[in-house]
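Hi L.,

You mentioned the student needs an example of a multi-chain input paired with its predicted structure. This one should do, with 892 residues in total across all chains.
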Amino acid sequence: MTAPTNHVLAHKPLKVALLGGGNVGAQVARILLDDADSLAARTGARFELLGIAVRNLDAPRTAPLPRELLTTDAEALVKEADLVIELLGGLEPARSLIQTAIAHGASVVSGNKALLAADGATLYQQADAAGVQLSYEAAVAGAIPILRPIRDSLAGDQITRVLGIVNGTTNYILDQMDSTGADFATALAEAQRLGYAEADPTADVEGHDAAAKAAILASLSFHTRFALENVHCEGISSITAADIAAAKEAGLVIKLLAIAEKFPAKDGEEGGVSVRVHPTLLPREHPLAAVHGAFNAVFVEAEYAGELMFYGQGAGGTPTASAVLGDLVSAARRIVLGGPGRTETTTGEVAALGIEAVQTSYCIGLTVADQPGVLAQIAQLFAGQGVSIETIRQTIHRDSVDQEDYAELRIVTHRALESALAGTVEQIRQLPVTREITSVLRVEGI
Amino acid sequence: MTAPTNHVLAHKPLKVALLGGGNVGAQVARILLDDADSLAARTGARFELLGIAVRNLDAPRTAPLPRELLTTDAEALVKEADLVIELLGGLEPARSLIQTAIAHGASVVSGNKALLAADGATLYQQADAAGVQLSYEAAVAGAIPILRPIRDSLAGDQITRVLGIVNGTTNYILDQMDSTGADFATALAEAQRLGYAEADPTADVEGHDAAAKAAILASLSFHTRFALENVHCEGISSITAADIAAAKEAGLVIKLLAIAEKFPAKDGEEGGVSVRVHPTLLPREHPLAAVHGAFNAVFVEAEYAGELMFYGQGAGGTPTASAVLGDLVSAARRIVLGGPGRTETTTGEVAALGIEAVQTSYCIGLTVADQPGVLAQIAQLFAGQGVSIETIRQTIHRDSVDQEDYAELRIVTHRALESALAGTVEQIRQLPVTREITSVLRVEGI
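Structure written out for the whole complex:
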C-alpha cells in the first residue's frame, strides 16, 4: 500500500459505470474496490463504481461480483457516469451504449476490438467532437502497452511496418506443433483442454480476432482509419505438421502474424498500406520467434527508432484489467486536470492495398514427377513472372502406392509481388508434371 | 509523405530551441527540418526551429548542422522558445537553462539522464508549478518507449519489479564474451574499435550510466523520487571469461541489469524499494537473455499485467532522436489543445533499501582444499546464516605449481538476504581450507 489513505483530494469522486461482468470485468471491479486508495492517490480523485451492467443477474460467473452492484439497465447506468468501461464485446448494444456515454459527456474505456475495427472512425469522431476521451489499450494484445507508445511515443517518427503476434490461442497451437511435432488437430485439442482455445475456435484459428487487431494497429500506425474489410485474412487451420517440420529444418518458425506494412509509391505505382493476417515464416533468430505459448508481442519498425518490440500477456482477466485500468486512470487524470481529451491524428489518407499488391518473400512446397528438365521448367515459370528464386531444395521420395519416384521441392523466393507469385503458382499447378502444391507461405524478417 | 502540405493549421507556429549539437541534436534538427509538414499535421502546429545552441560554432561535427541556426547564446535562445530540447548532458549549464525555460513558460524535452537522476524531483516540481511539461523518454533506453508506458499505461497497476538492460556498451561486451569466449579486455577493445565504447569507458563499464537510468526507472515505477545516491552500483570490469563459461555451462547468461524491486514489509521489517545495478545471472530462456549486441530491453513485472518486455535500440543519433521527437509532439499537442501538462504522481513515500536488505539468489564460485569434510563445513556456514543452498557443483583440479588436488565449487542459493549472504561469504573466506573466492554473482529470473 504505497498511497496514504488520508490523502486529501481536491476533486469530487468520479462515477464509473462498468458494462460487462465477464472475466475481465470481474477483475476490473475487484481492483477498483481493492485498490481504491492507491488509485485515488494516483488519479487525484476517487473512483466510485456505480454499478456493473450484466445481461442476467443470476448467470453463473467465473469470478465473484458484488451482487448489490449488478444491474440489467446498462442505459440508465451509463447516463449517470463520468467514465464508462465497456467490456461487452460485439457490436450491439456496445456501440449504442458508448454513443450514449459520449452524448452524456462521459469518457469511455473499451476493450472491444470487433467494434473498434468496425466503427472506430465514427466513434472516435464523436468522442472528439464531444471533447471526451475514447481509449482502448485492452483491445489489442491485452496487457501490453502498445497503442499508447505507437500513438504518443512514436508520434515524431515514421512507422514503416508492424508485425504482431496478437492472438494467444494460435501462438499456443503453433508453438505446440513446433515443440512437440503434433499436428494441428492435436495441438488445438490440447489448447482447448487448457482453456487457451474456445469450444468453437473459429474466430481465433481463422485469424478473425487477429484481423480486428491488425485494423486497429494499422490505423494508429499510419494515421489513417483502416476497417476490417481492408484486412486480408488467412488462418492456421491448414498448417500441417509437415509444414512445421520443413520450416524447422530451414531454421524458420511459423507464426500467425498481424501485419501492417507501408509500401511507398514506386515506378508510377500507387503506394499504400497492406493490412493482413496470415501464417508467416520467420527466422528463428527473429525476436518474435522467441515468443512462446499464449504470449503476445508486437514488433514495430520505424524510420528513426529502428526495431522495437513489445512483449507480454495478450489475454486473461487480470492482465487485460491492467490495460483497462491504465486507460481509466489516464482518462480520469485528464478530467481532474481539466483540458480537452488527448486526440489521435488521422491526418494521413493512405490507400489500403489489396493483398495482390504486397511484396514479400515466399516459400512454396510442392511435389513433382521425377523427370529430367522439370526443375528448369519450373524455374522458367518463376522467371517469366519476374519472381526471382533464392533457394531450391529438392528431395526424392518413392510413392508407396505406384512405386514411382517423385521430387519434393521447397522454393524460397526473393521479395516479389504477391500477384506475380500467385500467377506463378497457378501456372505450376497446371503443369502436367506437378503432383501437388503442398504449401505456399509468406516469409518475413529475412 | 502522408501529410497534406496545405493542411490548414489553426495554431500559430511553435518556437523550438535546441540545446546541443551532438549526434542526437543533429538528427533532431534534421528531422525537424525534413519532416516539417508531417510533424505539423500530427501536432496541429508547425515547429519553427529558432536556433541550435552549441559551445563552439566551429567545432568539428559528426553530422552537419545548418550554420545559420547555430548560436553560442543558449540563454537568449531559451527565453524566446515555446519548447526547449535539452541535449547538453551533464549538470550545468543544462540545469540552469531548463530552469530558465520553465520560468519563461516553455515546456522542456530532455535526454539528460545524469541531471534527471540528480535533480529530477526539483525540476519536476518546478515544471508542475509553472504548468509546463517536462518529458525525458530519451534519457532511458534511447528509442524504446518505456517511461510513458510505465507512467500512463501501468498507472492502474502495481509494478513489483523492473529489470533493465539499459546500457548498450556493457551488453555488447558481455554478449561478445559469451559468444566468443573472449576476456573482458579483448571484448572492451573490440567495442571501442566499433564505436560502442568510448575511449574512457568508465561510466559505462562501472555501471554509472545504468545507475542514473535505474534511478529514473525506479522513480516512475514506484511513484517515489529515488536519486543516484539510492542506487547500489557494481560494474562488469571484474567479470572473467571463466565466470562467463561457468554461467554458460549452468544454462545461464551474465547481463548487467538495472534493477528496481519492491520488497513488501514482512515480519516487522520495513518494506521498501531496492534500486541497484550489478552483473546478474539469468536463465538462458529468460526473455532478457535473448537481448544481444548493443540492444536494450526493459522487463517489467506488475501485479496485474504480469510480465512485460520492451525492446529496442538504446542509443544512437536517430533512435534517440525518435524518442525526443515523440516527447516534442506530445508536449506540443498539449500546447495546441490547451489545458495543463500531464503530471506524474509521486504519491508514494517508499523507503529506498540498502543493498544489504535485498533478497535474491546467489551463485558463489570458490576453490577449496580437497579434504574430507570440507563440503560439510561450508554447508554449515550457509545454514548458520539461514542461507539455503539449491545446488552445489564440485570439480576436482590439480594445481600446476604444487601438484596438489583442490576442489572448485559453484554454489547456487535459494533466495536469501544479501546481508546473510555477505556474512556467509566472509566466514568462508576465513576458513583455512579456502583457497580463493572467485566470484559472487546474483541470480534473477529463476
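You could point out the following to them. Residues 317-337 of chain B form the longest helix (21 residues). Chain B has three domains: 14-135, 147-314, 359-443.

Best wishes,
N.
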